[in-house]
Design the sequence.
């Protein structure tokens, strides 16, 4: 008979989740978990039925994680139609010189780029599966004419998205984007104008708050839009109130992203892990309270992705909280010059330019050393992460941070404690049966349960 931690059985590690009387029992290698009563922990670890049941499925768990981590196809491109931006946000990952004086991609070049991408995805994706093109920035609306021409010409070939600071979103532009079912992402860092404008402002020091608020009001009722908040030392105390504000504005989805510290400017507004985690979890609490009060969800997408990475790993929508991350693997970034990078976070790091879309073949670029460096970054090779019980629920983001802030790909990113506390919070929700409160409607549609030990417990 094989037992846990015997040398032959699975390595199952208990984790405190901050829930009275409950713990998580986790196999770090396979991302298998079980919620157990604290007073039954020893008995469960010595329960031959439990161990044998796990072992019977362990290979399939391992294969699922192997496929998710190493064998996904590229399905998305973060497309920068311009280097330029009309804002000078404190934490931007695009260098100032590019944002001030960079290039626009011409309309003929943009259409050619989409033609090349269409041809590439036709060879890699099954018929009927549309790849995603997310026009990103800098500020893509600064090259609106070319971008809109691309959306109109290729509306049946891609699923389009636009991430914008909203300062150039007039009524006509919003109607065009809605008509073409383009996913629209806005950015707002606080419900308080002064706080929001303290980090997101123009070169002339004019804040973007009023423009974003106007766009949010125009998009009310459009279910294909979201708002990103970048959490910094300046706004972290306001996250619960911001969630309430988003809910009042009927925002369907938001993201509360910890500031990415790839470039030095972002590190100046970086909050401490512990302080950010405290306010972050209060914001999640508030989102659930509002749902229970109103019956209307505000999905916090980046936390929802952590939660779903536990309950249904293959259903995750974002690929930042897994190792290797999605950079250079499930997506890549395209600059206004046609250069390809593993992720937008690397656009300010010239050594991660893998080649040019107009002069090289995409498969060749994907095999380049800069792309391989990102794909080869695994938690197993990061000292602290290699022994971490939640390593496949977190993924030690972000490789760009690790490389440029902490000195190498085999270093951790910036917010280890924040991710750990999100995982504990997620397990508490699972223990209380409250997962659905935090996930998008019909999230489990077409998912198949691969294993449920409760089916074998009688």
Sequence:
């Amino acid at each position: 008979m094989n037992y846990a931690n015997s040398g032959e059985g699975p390595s199952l590690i208990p984790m405190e989740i901050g829930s009275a009387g409950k713990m998580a029992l986790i196999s770090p290698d396979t991302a298998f978990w079980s919620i157990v009563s604290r007073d039954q922990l020893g008995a469960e670890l010595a329960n031959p039925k439990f161990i044998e049941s796990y072992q019977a499925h362990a290979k399939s768990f391992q294969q699922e994680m192997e496929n998710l981590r190493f064998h996904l196809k590229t399905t998305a491109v973060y497309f920068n139609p311009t280097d330029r931006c009309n804002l000078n946000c404190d934490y931007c990952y695009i260098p100032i010189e590019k944002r001030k004086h960079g290039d626009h991609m011409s309309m003929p070049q943009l259409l050619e780029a989409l033609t090349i991408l269409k041809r590439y995805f036709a060879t890699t994706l099954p018929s009927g599966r549309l790849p995603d093109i997310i026009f990103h920035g800098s500020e893509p609306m600064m090259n609106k004419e070319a971008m809109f021409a691309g959306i109109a010409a290729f509306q049946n070939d891609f699923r389009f998205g636009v991430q914008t600071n909203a300062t150039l979103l007039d009524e006509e532009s919003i109607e065009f984007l809605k008509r073409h079912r383009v996913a629209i992402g806005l950015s707002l860092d606080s419900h308080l104008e002064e706080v929001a404008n303290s980090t997101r402002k123009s070169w002339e020091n004019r804040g973007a708050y009023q423009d974003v608020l106007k766009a949010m009001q125009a998009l009310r009722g459009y279910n294909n839009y979201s708002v990103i908040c970048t959490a910094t030392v300046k706004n972290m105390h306001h996250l619960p109130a911001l969630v309430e504000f988003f809910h009042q504005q009927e925002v369907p989805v938001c993201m509360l992203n910890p500031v990415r510290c790839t470039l030095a400017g972002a590190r100046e507004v970086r909050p401490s892990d512990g302080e950010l985690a405290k306010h972050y979890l209060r914001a999640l609490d508030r989102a659930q309270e509002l749902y229970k009060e109103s019956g209307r969800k505000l999905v916090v997408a980046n936390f929802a992705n952590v939660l779903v990475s536990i309950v249904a790993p293959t259903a995750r929508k974002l690929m930042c909280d897994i190792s290797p991350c999605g950079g250079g693997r499930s997506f890549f970034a395209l600059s206004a010059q046609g250069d390809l990078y593993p992720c937008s976070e690397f656009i300010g790091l010239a050594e991660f330019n893998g080649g040019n879309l107009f002069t090289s073949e995409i498969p060749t670029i994907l095999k380049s050393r800069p792309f391989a460096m990102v794909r080869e970054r695994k938690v197993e090779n990061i000292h602290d992460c290699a022994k971490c019980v939640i390593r496949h629920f977190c993924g030690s983001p972000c490789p760009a941070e690790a490389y440029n802030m902490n000195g190498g790909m085999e270093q951790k990113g910036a917010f280890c404690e924040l991710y750990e506390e999100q995982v504990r919070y997620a397990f508490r929700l699972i223990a209380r049966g409250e997962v659905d409160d935090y996930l998008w409607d019909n999230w489990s549609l077409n998912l198949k349960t691969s294993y449920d030990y409760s089916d074998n417990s009688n």
Remarks:
- The chain has 18 helices and 13 strands.
- Confidence is low (pLDDT under 50) at residues 1-5.
- The longest helix spans residues 48-70.
